[in-house]
Amino acid sequence: CAILDVQAACQDATVMQELLKEGFHRDLLVKVELGAVGEDAGGCTVAARTRLPPGIYVDPYELASLQQHNLTKAVLIPDVIDVEAPEYLATNLLVLLYMEPDPGCSGCFRAALPVHGRYHRPAEESEEALVVLKSPEVLVCCCDNLLSAECWKPAEVEAPCLGKNMGPCQWYSITHKLAYEESILQVPVGLRQHSSLVCVVTLLATVLCSSLILAAVCKYGHFS
């Protein structure tokens, strides 16, 4: 009975992940409810570790601006990201998203992060590509408190803990219930049968704009 009680308490933690807005530019919202095990995490740092597939990325320049204004805290691995690369040339991205206490819920934490969809190859039929985002892992870092060994397991994390103690701290992970197994991002894509039309229109637009620029230079330019 004691073992069952411990397992029930550990499983009391819940994580929910949502993709807000539409199109290429979205907000990733993560909510964590620690429940009974949250009593061990008082004064600790709570984070969500999620792996972004090649079809979605975080803009490091946008993230730096948000962190400068204390709007979000996150660590990207790797920290060098090609924001112009298409989906088929990109790689996975690991994100450690630091979470803030939710004032409307005891033992709850939440965080949001802007994410962006990458361009995909043109498709044969469907006008949308599906990018599957797995549920994140819940991590806690405590420099002063001792966590229950039954619920919390040591985890290797290449990121600092934002707790009171500035020295090295151990991160821990917990087994939790998932509100949703995964989130799906629908990214608009072009159709292969439209490639000829797109090329012709692009060429005409390029020639027209170049002609207008050349005409303006000849009319208003000053040549020595």
Automatic annotation (TrEMBL):
It is found in: Endoplasmic reticulum membrane. Pfam families: PIG-X (PF08320). Pathway: Glycolipid biosynthesis; glycosylphosphatidylinositol-anchor biosynthesis. It comes from the Eukaryota. Keywords: Endoplasmic reticulum, Glycoprotein, GPI-anchor biosynthesis, Membrane, Transmembrane, Transmembrane helix. One of its GO terms (biological process) is GPI anchor biosynthetic process. One of its GO terms (cellular component) is endoplasmic reticulum membrane. Belongs to the PIGX family. Stabilizing subunit of the glycosylphosphatidylinositol-mannosyltransferase I complex which catalyzes the transfer of the first mannose, via an alpha-1,4 bond from a dolichol-phosphate-mannose (Dol-P-Man) to the glucosaminyl acyl phosphatidylinositol (GlcN-(acyl)PI) intermediate to generate alpha-D-Man-(1->4)-alpha-D-GlcN-(1->6)-(1-radyl,2-acyl-sn-glycero-3-phospho)-2-acyl-inositol and participates in the sixth step of the glycosylphosphatidylinositol-anchor biosynthesis. Probably acts by stabilizing the mannosyltransferase PIGM. This is Phosphatidylinositol-glycan biosynthesis class X protein. It comes from Phaetusa simplex. The lineage of its organism: Eukaryota, Metazoa, Chordata, Craniata, Vertebrata.
